[in-house]
């Protein structure tokens, strides 16, 4: 049974300007509701329908007119869309695999927090950027995190933290911060603002959320059952993360825009679609294993074999 939440708790995600984003947001929202009896709000300016079976949990709230042109920079204004006392923002290119009570419980005592670790600024953003942050903000450590999931308490402090991040963003280029596809990257700004306001992260050990960095093709992944196992290759692999164990099972998997057409995400998207169409769990899983997992895994195995054979001659 899904974990049940009171009306003080919710999840929020964003889907503006492109219907493709709405499809990702619906996948994200459905995955949350499969494992959690909680309200999910999708902030959008698009016209799309919520599937009937999810209408008691998933709702659309309109994006403010001033925010629509911002694209992904709308995430600099999450605090202005909070609907409940406690909220998890989950990026629309994420899929949820489990009960989110653990995340909310881990966030107790904070107004804004993330799954992250406090590290020397240089190790996260490089020497040049770290020097800029030290000079202008007096910080030599930052919270290193992936912005795919954030916790918010609806409070004056949360607003103050975001006001600070937005204030820094006004001089984003002057500070020499790096843009993400020509857009402001909110992670560094929010990290600075959280450090100023003494917010502590939820330790990032791969349990709350991860991206695809350590394991582009997980062997075990099923959004309907919650099964997921990510591998962390040993050092000196460039995909190794020293702060993760050799295997781990995140509650939320952040696929990222570069992986939304790759087979792990496509398999989860199809599982959600088949379940919505009324397929049984076993039939949906079998269908995806036959038509998605098996051919793609065989393809990648053959590519790997050919590369090994090529280097052996």
What does this 3D model show about the protein?
The chain has 313 residues and is of the alpha/beta class. 35% of the residues lie in helices and 22% in strands. It has 8 helices and 15 strands. Strands 5-4-2-6-9-8-10 form a 7-stranded mixed sheet, sandwiched between helices. Strands 7-15-11 form a 3-stranded mixed sheet. Strands 12-13-14 form a 3-stranded antiparallel sheet, covered by helices on one side. A hairpin with a 4-residue loop joins strand 12 (220-222) and strand 13. The longest helix is centred in the last third of the chain and has 32 residues, at 281-312.
Helix/strand structural class:
alpha/beta
Number of helices in the DSSP assignment: 8
Biggest beta sheet summary? 7 strands, mixed
What general outline do the C-alpha atoms trace? globular
